[in-house]
Amino acid sequence: MAQPSSFFITTPIFYVNDAPHIGHAYTEVAADVLARWHRQSGDDTWFLTGTDEHGQKILRTATANGVAPKEWADRLVETAWKPLLNTINISNDDFIRTTDQRHEEGVAKFLQKLYDDGHVYAGEFEALYCVGCEEFKPKSEIVDGTGAFEGEKVCAIHSKPLELLQEKNYFFRMSAFQERLLKLYEERPDFVQPASARNEVVAFVQQGLEDLSISRTSFDWGIPIPWDSSHVTYVWFDALLNYVTATGYGADEAEFERRWPGVHIVGKDILRFHAVIWPAMLMAAGLDVPESVYAHGWLLVGGEKMSKSKLTGIAPNEITDTFGADAFRYYFMRAISFGHDGSFSWEDLAARYQAELANGFGNLASRVLAMNAKYFEGKVPKSGTEEPADAEIRELAARAAATADKKMSAFAIHDAIAAVWELVDELNGYITDQEPWVLAKDEAKRARLGTVLYTATEGLRALAELLHPIIPEATAKLWTALGAEETLGALAEQPLREAGTWGRLAAGTELQPLAVLFPRIENEGDTK
């Protein structure tokens, strides 16, 4: 079992049949914020992401582009998927590809164990298959086609015709784990989150589970079944195993013990794979099930789910090229309640950038540091007698840190940011009320001026630490300006959960010039 202080978090591994859009980036940022929060808190953190490169969909896409599937995967990984991580400033510790040798070897060992233990058998299968989902569709997701597809059965998610497949396959006895899964959901109600996702999963399993076809013979782009090389492994069975093959399963038991089990952040459209099939697989192999599976909502554009096929996909760099990575991260984590669907609009993004980031946080930092430079020769002033207004800021900093940590632990990223942003707003109000520029005109009030500017500067210190997981570039600039010698985000002596502890910024510290945190965006109304 993993130690209590360990935190292993994953994103799904994404198909390389196309370039990423902001829906993929949304998942990456959410997992990254949580990973950074735990890492900065001193937890033994490991953040895994990667790409899913097998299956019929990849094979068809590569063939349509006139290249071998591995060549296609290599091209997309290097030109699109890995660059995405830099575009939105992702701090992953590992990147796994299902074509990695470590993964293919781990999948073979896992399959062989299930086969040897009697959890796999041979049989025949006929059902409607969606290549887009890489799944034999349940009846609840099969609908009648309309328009060009009238008279055909189509996938409820992709709105494209389903294919009738009939094959001799190997099956995983998933039905045998129905009661154990229901017991898991009952005994650990937080295993699937949020509550709406848990209810959906429980209802699905209660309807009865069927055995799962885990091999294919109609194509050969996949990991061979170890005891029968005429079959390749079903792409989802292959893909789900990345979470354990990346952490040492069957190869490095010490590392596996250290990391597993983990937390999975997934889109709600792939919840069933992670909350039903995956724990059943692990149960069969005698391994721990995940700590939790958290399903976030969809990003909507024009009322529709983000999709390249429906021309609603937006490339992340379309946003970051104008607003930067920090604004991308802040907007999607703050504007959307994590766990629910959320609509994206350029107008809302531009408005929040200006009001909350540039004017709210950026202007606060520049004003406070400029006054320190002007009135105290660029050094942190000494704090004198505390007055009620100062105490309110001190108490709020402690409260914000505690609330944010509690909310992050509950995956309520938007609420955590809101708790910290209350300190941004209150500090702006505090500066306005205390009028340090007026205090500076009266030498008799210099001690009070020092207290006010120390309070504001120490508030900036707390904000730099608390907001670093969300807006790492801006907070690193602020941290440097505050004269800190340590690297923000790796504070062994100053764990994030203690960011609200007052007085950690020493009086007399030499401050540095502050780089612009959020540059002015020209012609905001014409961004799109």
Task: Give a description of the structure.
The chain has helices at 22-40, 56-64, 69-87, 101-116, 178-187, 195-206, 235-240, 242-245, 253-259, 271-285, 316-323, 325-334, 346-375, 388-409, 413-434, 436-439, 446-467, 472-481, and strands at residues 6-15, 44-52, 94-97, 120-130, 135-136, 142-144, 153-155, 163-172, 192-193, 212-213, 215-216, 224-225, 228-233, 263-267, 292-296, 299-301, 304-305, 342-343. With 528 residues, the protein is an alpha/beta fold. Among the domains are: 120-172, no CATH class; 358-510, Isoleucyl-tRNA Synthetase, Domain 1. Helix 11 packs across helix 12 (325-334), helix 14 packs antiparallel against helix 15 and helix 14 (388-409) runs parallel beside helix 17. The chain is elongated. It starts with 5 loop residues before the first strand and ends in a 47-residue tail after the last helix.
Set down the secondary structure blueprint:
Blueprint: E1 6-15, H1 22-40, E2 44-52, H2 56-64, H3 69-87, E3 94-97, H4 101-116, E4 120-130, E5 135-136, E6 142-144, E7 153-155, E8 163-172, H5 178-187, E9 192-193, H6 195-206, E10 212-213, E11 215-216, E12 224-225, E13 228-233, H7 235-240, H8 242-245, H9 253-259, E14 263-267, H10 271-285, E15 292-296, E16 299-301, E17 304-305, H11 316-323, H12 325-334, E18 342-343, H13 346-375, H14 388-409, H15 413-434, H16 436-439, H17 446-467, H18 472-481
Helix pairs in contact: 2-3, 5-6, 6-10, 11-12, 13-15, 13-17, 14-15, 14-17, 15-17, 17-18
